Structure formats: structure tokens, C-alpha cells
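FW: tagging you since you asked about this chain on Friday. Here's the raw sequence from the shared folder, copied in full. Didn't touch anything.
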Amino acid sequence: MFSWRSKPATQPATKPATQAAQEEERKLPVLADLQHQELVVLFKHSSSCGVSWAAESQVKKFIAQNPDVPVYTILVRQDRELSRQIAEFTRIRHESPQVIVLRRGKVIADASHQDVTVKFLAEATRTH
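HL: got it, structure written out here
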């Protein structure tokens, strides 16, 4: 059901979840700087969780359809501190997988587990 793949041990803990990311790594801005961005999606991903792999597939499909929306993947096992900081910044309890949609630094939508879908992301980024 799931397509498992290994990731290199040297992979950074924070990376954009875009197809262009394969060529150019982009770090998540300082969390306080997110209040200046019009729209951003944070995707908390655990590479050891099957549900998270399924959510990652949905996020990648969303990115392919919406290449102008900045989407950042936080690998929660490798960067627990950043994941904790995001939970504090957004006041949303950490879950994995999880997406948090921010507009000018304010949470406008969030979902976790099976609710992380292309449809959810499209509606969340379009309607606010």
C-alpha cells in the first residue's frame, strides 16, 4: 500500500516540500518571520510512519498543482525542537503528520493524519 524509500542520513531536518527542492534546498524562515509572509504551509512529517507517508503523497500532489504556494516540510524525528517551537508559535498541539496553513503569521487552517489531503490544502489556501 505504501511506497517505502530510504533517505540519506545527511538530509537536512527542514526542507521545502517542493519538486524544485530536489535541486535547491531552502530553509524554513525564522518562525517570527512567518508573520510577514502572505501564505505558507508547514508540513510535519515522520519518515517512520505509514500514515505520514500517505500524507506526504497528498502534500506532493498539492505542490504539483500549486507550485507558487510555499510548503515547508519539517522532519519531526530529526528536528524535534523546531516541531516544538512551531507548536508554541501556532498554539496547535503537535501531531504527525500535520499541516498548518498560515496567512501573515496567523493560523487559518490545520489538519492531521488522514485529514491531510489535496482537497483540504486547496480549500485552506484558497478560501482565506
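FW: The chain is about 30% helix and 20% strand.
HL: agreed, and The CA atoms of residues 45 and 56 lie 7 Å apart.
FW: great, closing this out.
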